[in-house]
């Protein structure tokens, strides 16, 4: 007589719960990014004061998003990458405020460094979560693209064609990947099965 086995649903319950929480968070983050893209596109050239506020809000929102991510993935063995990401985004929020006093090239450099560091963290988290939750390829690709995008911000910061509206494309791709990840997590969230 074989030993009793636990059902797959019971074993996967924490993963299903996490997938549902992350799916909701990704949808919220996508909605924020879409709104931010629209606003920065509208106000980047005409109303510098509003654009400045939007530039400070973007990394500050990442702090909030990271805290929500930590809460959504409470079963994770290690939350060090998220905590590091939150600290980096707090520093970036302050640095963007300072860089804006100097000029757009300096601000783009700060955003570039932030995009590289947080992109690397996103890669690490995506690889870790793929084993447990599945549906993380969009986040892995997004992390890699963030590193490339951040590098281009730094390299092209003093190009006169690179204004703050150039960040809109970066945020738009982020929104796309969050939506795609939310969709991919639906398999785990709705059916309780892993990829």
Distance between the termini: 31 Å
Helix run count: 7
Given the C-alpha coordinates, what overall shape results? elongated
Poorly predicted tracts of residues:
1-11
- State the total count of DSSP E strands: 0
Count of individual domains: 1
Which sequence of SSEs, written as H and E, runs from N to C?
HHHHHHH
What is the average per-residue confidence, as pLDDT, rounded to a whole number? Answer: 82
Q: Please bin the fraction of helical residues.
A: over 70%
Radius of gyration: 18 Å
Structural class: mainly alpha
Q: What portion of the residues fall into strands of 2 or more residues?
A: under 5%
Quick one: biggest sheet? none
Can you characterise this structure?
The chain has helices at residues 8-11, 13-43, 48-72, 80-102, 104-133, 137-155, 167-191. By secondary structure, the protein is mainly α. Helix 2 (13-43) packs antiparallel against helix 7 (167-191), helix 3 (48-72) runs antiparallel to helix 4 (80-102) and helix 5 runs antiparallel to helix 6 (137-155).
């Amino acid at each position: 007589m074989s030993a009793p086995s636990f059902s797959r649903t019971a074993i996967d319950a924490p993963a299903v719960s996490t997938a549902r929480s992350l799916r909701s968070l990704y949808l919220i983050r996508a909605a924020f990014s879409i709104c931010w893209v629209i606003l920065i596109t509208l106000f980047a050239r005409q109303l510098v004061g509003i654009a400045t506020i939007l530039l400070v809000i973007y990394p500050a929102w990442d702090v909030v998003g990271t805290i929500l991510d930590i809460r959504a993935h409470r079963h994770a063995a290690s939350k060090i990458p998220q905590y590091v990401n939150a600290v980096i985004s707090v520093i970036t929020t302050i640095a963007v405020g300072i860089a804006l006093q100097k000029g757009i090239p300096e601000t783009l450099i700060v955003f570039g460094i932030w995009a590289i560091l947080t992109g690397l963290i996103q890669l690490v988290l995506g690889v870790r979560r793929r084993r447990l939750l599945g549906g993380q390829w969009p986040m892995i690709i997004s992390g890699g693209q963030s590193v490339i995008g951040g590098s281009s911000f730094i390299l092209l910061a003093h190009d006169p064609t690179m204004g703050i509206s150039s960040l809109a494309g970066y945020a738009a791709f982020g929104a796309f990947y969050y939506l795609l990840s939310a969709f991919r997590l639906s398999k785990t969230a709705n059916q309780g099965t892993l990829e």
